[in-house]
Amino acid sequence: MKNNQVNLEVYNQMYLGKLGELTLKGSNVKVFEKQLLTNLKYAISGSAAKAWLSSGRLYVAAKEEACPVVEYALDHLIGITGWAKVRCVEKTLDAIKAAVREEGLAAKANGARTFKIDARREDKDFALNSYEIAIQAAGVLFDDNTLAVDVHHPDAVINVEVRDKCYVYCAQKKTCRGLPVGVSGKGLLLLSGGIDSPVAGYRMMRRGMKVDCIYFHSYPYTSEEAQKKVEDLAKIIGQFGVETYLNVIPFTQVQMHIKQHSPENYSTLMLRLCMMKCANLLAPRIGAQAFITGESLGQVASQTNENMACTESFAEYPLYRPLIGLDKEEIIRTAEFLGTYEVSILPYEDCCVLFSPRHPVLRSPVEEAKRIYDEMQIDDLVQKAFDERKIIHFSVQETIKEKFGEK
Questions:
Q1: What DSSP assignment string belongs to 331-383?
Q2: Closest CA to 34 of 176, 181, 174, 164
Q3: H helices of 266-349, where?
Q4: What secondary structure does DSSP assign to 119-154, as a single string?
Q5: Cβ atoms of 74 and 15 closer than 8 Å
Q6: Quick one: pLDDT at residue 352?
Q7: How far apart are CA 288 and CA 188, in angstroms?
Q8: How confident is the model at residue 358 (pLDDT cuts 50, 70, 90)?
Q9: CB within 10 Å: which end of the chain, N or C, has fewer?
Q10: Which CA distances in Å does 197 have to 45, 110, 191?
C-alpha cells in the first residue's frame, strides 16, 4: 500500500514510524518488515486506520477517531525506534514552508525558543537538496523572529522528509526498539508475581521472540489475588508481545510433597526443578524452543552459579536468562517503563516466597540435587499438575478493545 492508495482526505491523520536495527538485516530485511507490519495491523484491526511500509519508514493513515488506538499501538510496537504524528503535504516549497511554520508555532507555544531544521530528501527528483530544503524552511521561522536558530542544542528539531509526499514533524516519541516479535521463534517464560520475570520476557520479546507464560499457583497457600496479579502482568506482556497465553499450573500438591520429602534447605531448589520438569512438558505442546527466567546472578539463594546449574541440568531446552548480569535498580527501571512495577509490588506472595526455608542451600552439586529429586518420586504429581492446567489468552487487540471500545 502507498499514499496514492489511501484517501488522505478521509484518513487525514498521518503517523511515521522509524525502523531500527531490522534495516541492517540485508537480504532478509523483507521478512522482518513483513512481521513488523503484521504485528501493527493486528493491533489496529477494526479501527479506522491503514498501515504500510515504504523505503525504511512505517506509515499509518488514520481517521481522527482512530488516533488514540494508533498511538497506543505504536507505543507498544517492538521493532521501531520511535514515531511521530506528521503533517503530510504536497512536494512544493510553499507547502513545506507552511507546514514548518505550523510546527514552529506549536513548538513555541510549548515553550521552545530555539530550533533547527533536519531535512532529508528521499526523492532525488525534488529540485532542492537536503541542505537547501533546510535553509529555505528555516527562513520561515527565523526571518520573522518566531524562533532563534541553534543547530547544536535546539529546543525543537523540525524534521522535513521529502518522499512520495512531504512529511513535516517536530515531536517524536521514543519507543521499544528491538526486532519485531515473531522473527525469533517462541520462548516459554516462567512468570511469577515478582519484578524480574516480566522484564525478562520483555527483553526476549525485543530480540524478536514470541513469549508464552507458565505460572505455578498453590491455592490456598497463595491467594486468588496473587494469581490475579500474575494475570495482570501477563496482560501487560501481551500488549508488547502482540499476544501471550498464560498457563496456570496448580502446584499445591507438588509443593506439599516437597515439604514432606525433601530436606528443608533443599525445598526451594527442588521446587525450581519441578517447575523445570513441568516446563519440559508444556514446551512441545506450544511449540516453544527455549525457556526464559528472570534470574539474576547472586540475587537470591536459588540464583547462585551452582544452583542455577542444577536448574539448567533439568531443562530439555535452551534456558535464557536475559537479566543475568543486571542489578535490581536496572531491572526496576525497565519494569517502570513497562508498567509492571506497580503490579509486581502488590503485597500478594507467590508460592516461592511462602515455602522458602530459613537457610536454603546455596551451592548444591548437580549430582546431589538430582539424587534428592529422584528420591522424592514426584514426577507423577508434576504430570498431574500439568494435566490440570488452566490457559488464559491476552493480546494487545483485546486490551485496545477494553480501553477504546474498538470492535
A1: HHHHHHHHT-HHHHTSS---HHHHT--SS--SS--HHHHHHHHHHH--HHHHH
A2: 181
A3: 267-286, 305-313, 328-338, 341-344
A4: EEE--TTSSS-HHHHHHHHHHHHHTTTSSEE-SSS-
A5: yes
A6: 55
A7: 6
A8: confident
A9: C
A10: 30, 39, 5
- What CA dihedral angle connects 23, 29, 31 and 35, to 10 degrees? 10
Strand pairing of 114-121 and 13-19? Answer: unpaired
Q: Which residues touch 392 (CB under 8 Å, ≥6 apart)? A: 231, 234, 245, 246, 248
The β-bridge partners of 174 are: 82
pLDDT digits (tens, 9 = 90+) for 48-103: 999 999 988 999 999 999 999 999 999 999 999 999 999 999 999 999 999 999 99
pTM of the predicted protein model: 0.92
Q: What is the pLDDT of residue 4?
A: 54
Question: Quick one: which H or E segment has residue 243?
Answer: strand 243-250
Task: Measure the CA–CA gap between 253 and 221, rounded to whole angstroms.
Answer: 11
E strands, 44-94, in order:
49-54, 57-62, 80-89
Q: What are the residues whose beta carbons fall under 8 Å from the beta carbon of 188, sequence distance 6 or more?
A: 211, 212, 213, 214, 279, 282, 283, 286, 288, 290, 291, 292, 317
CA distances from 43 to 72, 100, 324 (A): 9, 31, 32
Euclidean distance between CA atoms 397 and 292, whole angstroms = 24
Q: How far apart are the C-alpha atoms of 111 and 7, rounded to whole Å?
A: 35
**pLDDT above 90 covers what percent of the chain?**
83
Burial of 53 (0-12, 13-18, 19+ CB in 10 A): middle
Cβ atoms of residues 20 and 79 within 8 Å? yes
Q: Which residue type is seen at 299? A: Q
CB 310 within 8 A of CB 364: yes
Evaluate the CA torsion angle 85, 87, 90, 91 in order and state its sign: negative
Grid cell in block for residue 162: 521529502
Residue 341's identity, in one-letter code, is: Y
Query: Taking a C-beta distance cutoff of 8 angstroms, is the pair 14, 74 a contact?
Result: no
Residue 358: CA atoms inside 13 Å, Cβ hemisphere, count?
Answer: 0
C-alpha cell at 139: 527562513
| Number of helices and strands in the chain (H, E) | 15, 15
Question: What does the pLDDT read at residue 407?
Answer: 44
Cβ atoms of 170 and 106 within 8 Å: the answer is yes
